[in-house]
Amino acid sequence: RELRIQSTADAAAGLVALLRSPNLVRLERLALTCPLPQAVVDAMTACPALDGMTSLTLYPVASLQSRAADVTALLRSPRLSRLRELALGGVVADAEAIGALSLTSLTLSGGTKLGAKGATTLAKAEACAHLRTLRLAGVDIPDKELLVLLGSPRLEKLRALTLEQMLNGKKLAAALDDLARAALRELGFSASPLREEGAEALVAARDKLVRLTKLGLEGAALKDTGAIALAGLALPALSTLDLDGNAIGPAGMAALGAGPLLSTVRDLSLRKNKCGTEGGLALAKAKRLGGLRRLE
Hints:
Strand order of the largest sheet: 1-2-3-4-5-6-7-8-9-10-11-12
Shape: elongated
Oligomer: single chain
Largest sheet: 12 strands, parallel
Strand content: 15-25%
């Protein structure tokens, strides 16, 4: 049902034979996380399992950047009518081809090029009406068109959104306004320099995030000032919070322990911060952490 290949070194011919084998007719999930020779791409297009495939991952495929037409031909295949999950990395993404699929999950990462026109096209695509999970990580999209995509009225069913290396704190407020129509359960801004402005934007948008159960802010450059601002955020359904790698010191930890943010959290990650003994003691004394079940 599932096949994962992480390297094609000295084995391209074998992989081609495997992908063309009739024994793969029941394959539903295919992940090729390695550079792909041309022969492998051709074999994928002719793979017997294509008709029943529900999940496809091609990442990283940097060797295909100059052969975008090959990926496009694969994605435009009418045999992918059952595909629901798509993850692409390091390609020039064809927004029209992606938009024609009935996806519930879309991941674009690893320097994938979507561009202004692609983002606008995808925002209007019928495919967005089915999306429940969207992850954009280091994708080439201008800020203006990124906000157009996030503001698409077709994203009403979106429940999980991750933006890695895509937004700074000043742009976050506009993005949250655009996402107000989506009843998000999971939100992540990994490796995005949100800083204090981003924390303040989250607090200001709290009424739009009341259904949020998971918030990922790892590597968001919050520091103490951002943590102090974030501590005032009250999210009644929040159960998982990731604050890894934010250089939060004792003052920030004390604010988090005293504020409403952690009162419902059961899974908390604070790795790679500057907590120190003073910050640790402040958290230990916090009366709002009674529901905590896991701390890193």
